Amino acid sequence: MIEKLFKYRTDSSISNILNYKRTHSLHRPLLGNEVSAGFPSPAQDYIEENLDLNEHLIAHPAATYFVKVDGYSMVEAGIFPGDILIVDRAVEPDHKKIVIAIVDGELTVKRLYKKNGKWFLNPDNPEFSSLEITHDINFHIWGVVIYSIHKMR
Question: Is 110 annotated in the active site?
């Protein structure tokens, strides 16, 4: 257990915490056609309406914050170093949800998992170890990851 906890602690998967403060709407054109194998010409005929990203990405503004990822423990979930996660504290953490947690004073992003009545923080990378949530550790969930802002590489 000590080795797993040590490896877990060395994964500094959160680098910054940023508060959400809506200062103005962010409207962008929403194309009316879905994109499958190709992309239609971005001509004016395809624009269906304007889309405010705040309205679609932020359900609970007072309970929402952003964190920047620094680590590789969640790469199989599509979360990479440099990604910005949108985290909602109003969403109930549950089995298989990706959460931001504090473990012994350190922030991390992991998948919450329940097996045989026990709770774990699981990485989505086989090179990292799971951590069973026991009474021996100082543990608190800071919110559920709702979206990942990910630059295409």
Answer: yes
110, 129, 130, 151: the active-site residue? 110
Q: Which part of the chain is CATH 2.10.109.10?
A: 2-21+60-149
Tokens of 35: 């994109």
| Active-site residue, 96 included | no
Nearest to 98 by CA among 113, 84, 82: 113
For 61-107, what is each residue's pLDDT tens digit?
Answer: 888 998 989 999 999 999 999 999 999 999 999 999 999 999 998 89
Q: Which residues is 86 bridged to in the sheet?
A: 66, 147
Give the pTM: 0.74
3-state helix, strand, coil in the chain (%, to 5): 15, 40, 45
